[in-house]
Amino acid sequence: MEKKTKSPATPWKIVSAVLAVALIAVACTWAFTAQNNNTCTPVKDTAATETIAETTAAKADEAEADALSLWTEKAPLKAELTDYIKTITDESSADFIPVEDRIAVFDMDGTLCCETDPGYFDHKLLYHRVMEDPDYKDKASDEEKATAAIIKEYFDTRSYPDGLDVKHGTAVATAFKGMTPEEFDAYVKDYRNQPAEGYNNMTNGEAFYKPMLQVVDYLNDNGFTVYIISGTDRLITRGLAEGTVDIPVRQMIGSDESFVASGQGDEDGLKYTFSKDDKLITGGEFIIKNLKMNKVSVIEREIGQQPVLCFGNSSGDFAMANFTISNNKYKSGAYMLCCDDLVRENGNQEKADKMFADCEENGYTAVSMKDDWTTIYGEDVTRK
Fold first, then answer.
1. pLDDT digit string (tens) for 233-265?
2. Domains of the chain, start order
3. Separation CA 313–CA 215 (nearest Å)
4. What pTM was computed for the model?
């Protein structure tokens, strides 16, 4: 029989032994008494043990505070979210959530980034494509130009017209028809590098809310899988958020348009086989606007799990929020941003007041951009 050799001590066993000795040394000291028999009496140093525990707890609290350092101390989200994370990551807690079930969903425009400058990023992008791009504007269709005119009116009045969601989605699909995803992505990234119209020292792509990016990072660090669920076209969402929001592009979900093979023509996809010479290109057909109930549908289709946290900023996100907090087997929450900062951001007090009231009515936690954030885009960024 082969003689078995004794396995060397693994590093964690060595570390454990050293820590055990150190804890015993700290916890107990010998107090020598000047008694006639010269005996020694062991005395536990409880003060030292308590000091270590207090220091450890203080460091943990400090790390939590640093994670959301751009949030004021009175911000409801800061207190709620840090307490939530401590609870759901504690395996001994009744509210513990396994890592695979820690799903958080975020709207994008107005929740993670600037919503109106003077309008949505994807609306500005389409207007640029149809009315300003020297390589396309002469090719733009009458329908695309008519939609661009409605968008311009929206920019000027700050009033979003009924029916523009579908008109805009349709015009995006046709105006970018025939592009590969890589070409579309490059176009979006080029436009995101243009200066933000209403701000100094900021580009379109830099117009992300720094406090909200901290929330994404904080959730990432605590085992969450974070998704963007946006009303913006999926490829535009990816092109705008990639490299700024620290999640993979596969977790960036938006409104959809069709894709076809470059050699497919009008042949149905059930009959056509993608060939080695084909490229994937946009097909020019608008499929769905990812707002309201459609956000819930896309969560089920593409994630297949009920989220436990939801972050939004408009009534278009209420369905997603209600889906998150209703009949959830886990402790859950929904947060809504209120655009009440009229100095650092293009706020709208009337809209913010309505959102505060909606949060109260629906059980969401309101986020005040004015009162809860120490900065929005960074101290060097100012409004024009």
1. 999 999 999 999 999 999 999 999 999 999 999
2. 23-57 (no CATH), 101-383 (3.40.50.1000)
3. 15
4. 0.84
